[in-house]
Amino acid sequence: MLPIMFDYTEKILHIWQRGGKWSLNLKEQIYMLSLERHSNITRAAKELGISQPALTTFLNHLEKDLDVKLFDRSAVPMKLTPAGELYINKAKKMLCIKEEFDRELQVLKKRDLSCIRVGIQQIRAPHVVPPLTMAVKQEFPKLDVVFNENHGENLFNMLERGEIDLLLHNHMRQIPGISAEFLMKDRLLFITPKNHLLNAYGIKSAKPYPWIDLSWFKNENFMLLPEAYTLREHAEQLFASLGWRPETIEIYTRTETILRLVTAGAGVGFIFESYLSYFNEERKPACFLIGNPPITVDYMAFYPEKMKQYPVFTRFLDMIRFVLSK
User: Fold this and answer.
1) d(C-alpha 214, C-alpha 242), whole Å
2) Longest pairwise C-alpha distance within the chain
C-alpha cells in the first residue's frame, strides 16, 4: 500500500467506518472524538453512520452519567468545556492503547509486522520518502508504511504518546523505553553570500569546507529558523558558547527561504550539510565549518525497544541508511 498521511483520529474513524472489529469497546470514545472534530452533532452523526437524534441521546446520557457538561452547545459551533477537553485528551490516549493492543495481538498471531508508522521532518520527507517507499514496495509489498510529516517537538510528542513507531531526527534525546540508533553524521555549516568580504578569513584545510571564526560576523544580519527547530537550537548553543548574540536576527520558517536570501546577499545563516542537496539553486552560498572542533550532528532513529524484535523493522532501518547515503 502507498504511504498515507492523515490525522490519527481520522485513522481511527476510518477503521470504524470500515466496520472494524473492536475487541476493546471504545465506541463511546470514537463518538466523542467525532463530535470534537466537527463541533457539530449533525456532521458527526453522518460521519459515524448514525442518526442525529441517536448521537444527541448518546451525548445527553454520557453527560448525565458523568454529571458534567462536555460541550457548550449554546456556542456556534459548539465548544468543548474544560471537562470535555480532559475527556478528549484521555480518549485519544485510550485509542493509542487500543491500536497498540491490536498490533501486538496481530504479531502474536502471525509473528509479523504489518505496519510501521514513521515520523519525519517536513524538510527531509520529499527526499527520503519516495525512494524508501519504492524499496519497501519491492521487498515487502504487504508492509504498510505510514509517514507523518511534522517538526521536531511535535514528532517527539507523538513518539512518547505511541502514535508513531519510528522517529527520524537529528536531535539527540533520551526517553525511557525508547531506543536511539545512529543513522548518519551531518555537519552544521555556516553560510554566507559568495562575495562576502569576510569570507577571506576562512581557513582552508583538508576537510571539504574551510573553517571560519563566527565572531567575525557578529554585526551581520543573521537569518534563523524559529526556536522549535533543531538548526535554531544549534545556533543558540553556538552563540552561548561564544558569549555573544548577533546584533540583528530575522526569523523565517523555511530553510529554503533562508538559503535563497543568503545567496541573494541579504544576510548569513546556518544549514545542515545534507540539506544542501535538497535545493537545486543556481546560486550557491559560501559554506564554512564552525565551532572548535567543527560541529557535527548525529541523525538518529528513535523507536520503542520492542520494535527491534521484528526482523522486518531491522531491515527497514537498513533501507533508511541506504537512502540517506545517496
Assistant:
1) 9
2) 75
Is it the case that residue 103 has pLDDT exceeding 50? yes
Give ranges for CATH 1.10.10.10 in the chain: 1-109
CA contacts within 13 A on the Cβ side of 250: 16
Q: Are strands 144-150 and 166-169 parallel, antiparallel or unpaired?
A: unpaired
Gap between the Cα atoms of 4 and 15, Å rounded: 14
What residue ranges of the chain are covered by domains with CATH 3.40.190.290? Answer: 184-298
Mean pLDDT, the chain, whole residue set: 87
Residue pair 121/155 in contact (Cβ under 8 Å)? The answer is: yes
**Cell representation of residue 115:** 505496519
Architecture of domain 1-109: Orthogonal Bundle (1.10)
What the block records as the C-alpha cell of 300 is 538518529
Q: What is the CATH number of domain 184-298?
A: 3.40.190.290
pLDDT tens sequence across 146-156? 999 988 788 99
pTM above 0.85, yes or no: no
DSSP assignment string, 64-81: HHHTS-SEETTSSS-EE-
